[in-house]
Amino acid sequence: MSGSIVLNWLASTPDFAVPYALAALGLIISERAGVLSLGAEGLMLVGALAGIGAQIVLGQPGVSLVLAMLAASAVSLLFAVMVIWLRVNQVIAGLALVFFCQGFTALVGSLAEWTNHATEGIGSMALWPLSLLPGVGRLFEQNAMVWLTLPIFVAVAWFFSRTSAGLRLRAVGENPQAADAAGIRVTTWRLAAVLAGSALVGLAGAYISVVSTKLWIAGMTGGRGWIAVGLVIFARWSPWKALVGALLFGCIEALIPQLAAAGVQLPQYFVMMTPYAVTLGVMVWVALARRGGDDEPGALGQPYVREERR
Amino acid sequence: MVDATLAAIAQPAQTDPEAAHRARRQPLARRRYALEIRQHMGWRRQALILAAALLAGLAISAAILVAAGVPADELANEFVMQTFFDGQNFRAVLFQAAPMILVGLAGSLAFRARFWNLGLEGQMVWGAIGATAVSMWQVGPEPLRLPLMFAAAIGCGLLWVLGPAWLKIRLGVNEIISTLMLNYMAANFLLHLVYGSWKDPKDNFPYSPQFRAFERLPELGAGVSSAILLAAVVALLAWWLVGVSRAGLYLRFVDASPRVAHANGVPVRRTIYGAVLLSGAMAGLAGFAVASGQEGRLTQAFYQGYGFSGILIAFLARNNPLAATVVALLVAALFVTGRSLQVFYQVPFSMVQLIQAIIVVCVASSDFFIRHRVRRVGGEQAQ
């Protein structure tokens, strides 16, 4: 491969990595509070549809992204009520949420005639002065959302490791009984974590529709939400490792069009399998490499009711 | 914050009348409710709650359909009269039900072993690929062709779930993700085949050449395919396996508590492997029912959410094989109705997914009232 292909490849990687990164970060927030959020695939679709809808109607990318976050949060409220108060099995509730969102977004998308309606996305933003560097300067011309992703990660990582609120949230996911005894409101924290996490998952979906492809097609997330769920396990619920994992997946996905452009003949559908195969491989690798300490939140997937003795 | 919680906990202990009066006059939002775990509820009340949840789900779905532009009276006519009381449509329901029953049984068997087999769709795809391969390569003499396709479908479905089962049992790899990833890989492999070397040379559409007559599940007469008979036989076998056989007893042990089961001498691993592999085999059979019973070739019919339907059927049926058969019939009716709504009112087919999800949400939420009792504490308790 020549140098320019490598450079093109690396320059297009962030665009593919951002949805994985944001979705995984959102999932980490909710799972750190003990709520297993399998509905990511559906919430990404909600974010994608709400984002593109707002973009078509209002034409303000910033507003569209915010509305997409709100929409995903609002839909996740349904999930939150089911798993936090009604204590529905979190796997079933998550699957039902995905199913609900797939049907709902396809219905609304076709009724509102937003399908295949191209919009203007957001332009690229050069990170001065790095973008002036000879050769590699192109790597620093990305859209604003790519640059915004980094502060979001810093903020969430700082929240978890440096604030008492972050400590409380983790305590709720680790041992809700003990947290409750210490005066932490378990349901409130779990609700807040689900809503905040879902907002980020929705933003990830909106990034795909508003920023990346600039149009809506039913089911356009194509399993990225599930890959993000796997990514969280790979990252052992740590934001920074999730960012690394997202970049890895972004690299792999960005490589495919580059190879095609370079005239490398690859069986198309096998190439399309790679993200899923890599996810599977990563899961196996994590299982093999796991030694001693387990970072999984202790109460992940378990409902909490104060009156129940375990 | 700690003080507030302590005060709230201490509240029920108040005994003096003045405090009780104060507690009674608390604004509604300040009143405290406590959840209690209900030990048991009579089956009549359980059935009542379940029926109410189902009705609520159907009512919400109907409201959405009306909002989407389907006239309300047409809706009732379409779903109740046309689907169940019209001979042709009822046959269509039976036609649609065969793979639904099989995939629902597949789901319930795996879930009984506490294995979230979300890869039912991938196993169906592989079942159909296996059956089609036998037809494409003309394996075996003609009278044996159908049994061979049957066996190939079972084998392929079983092999596709073997990997996740092994990874889960040996390495503790989360089966939810692994089976889902295998779904996407199977789907892409299917596309590779139908857009590639298996494409029908006659008209260049993305499906395999048509099966010959002896490669198709025969008709029973009156337009009913034998696929439904196959599904019924498998359902009876599953019922026997789960409810009567020793393996079924083991499964119940494992479902209740793998550790206790192990301590009691139940071969836990073998039981889990058995249930999961059978689940894959049944899903493969569902793929065979689609390919040989419905389409008559390898197509992309699997993008209608069969796998997810199987999971939801198993959940709604509480993993009971006979209940799964009934629920699968209802879901099949939903599919048939959905398809005609799609044709007549341009309602997208994904509406069927939406309705299934709404019903599952309602039924799952109604479980709360079966398992819990809500009791008010504070105010009134203090009297």
Strand and helix layout:
The complex is a heterodimer of chains A (310) and B (383).
Chain A: H1 3-32, H2 40-57, H3 61-85, H4 90-111, E1 124-126, E2 141-143, H5 144-162, H6 164-174, H7 176-181, H8 186-213, H9 224-234, H10 239-261, H11 268-289
Antiparallel strand pairs in A: 1-2
Helix pairs in contact in A: 1-5, 1-8, 1-9, 1-10, 2-3, 2-4, 2-8, 2-9, 3-4, 3-8, 5-6, 6-8, 9-10, 9-11, 10-11
Chain B: H1 2-10, H2 17-24, E1 32-37, H3 43-67, H4 72-85, H5 87-112, H6 120-136, H7 142-171, H8 175-194, E2 219-221, E3 224-225, H9 227-243, H10 246-256, H11 258-263, H12 268-295, H13 306-316, H14 321-345, H15 350-371, E4 372-377
Antiparallel strand pairs in B: 1-4, 2-3
Strand order of the biggest β-sheet of chain A: 1-2
Question: Please, what is the oligomeric state?
Answer: heterodimer
Strand content of chain A: under 5%
Shape of chain A: globular
Weakly predicted, low-confidence segments of chain A: none
Count of DSSP-assigned helices of chain B: 15
- Give the topology string of chain A: H per helix, E per strand: HHHHEEHHHHHHH
H/E series of chain B, N to C? HHEHHHHHHEEHHHHHHHE
**For the terminal residues of chain B, how far apart are their CA atoms?**
27 Å
Number of helices of chain A: 11
Mean pLDDT of chain B: 85
- The portion of residues assigned to helices of chain B is over 70%
Put the structure in a nutshell.
Chain A is built from eleven helices and two strands. Chain A has 310 residues and is mostly helical. Helix content of chain B is 70%, strand content 4%.
Describe the structure.
The complex is a heterodimer of chains A (310) and B (383). Chain A has 310 residues and is an all-alpha fold. Chain A is globular. In chain A, helix 5 packs across helix 6. Chain A contains eleven helices and two strands. Chain B has helices at 2-10, 17-24, 43-67, 72-85, 87-112, 120-136, 142-171, 175-194, 227-243, 246-256, 258-263, 268-295, 306-316, 321-345, 350-371, and strands at residues 32-37, 219-221, 224-225, 372-377. In chain B, the strands form two sheets. Chain B has a two-stranded antiparallel ribbon. In chain B, strands 2-3 form a two-stranded antiparallel sheet. In chain B, a hairpin with a 2-residue loop joins strand 2 and strand 3 (224-225). At the A-B interface, helix 3, helix 4, helix 9 and helix 11 of A face helix 1, strand 1, helix 8, helix 13 and helix 15 of B.
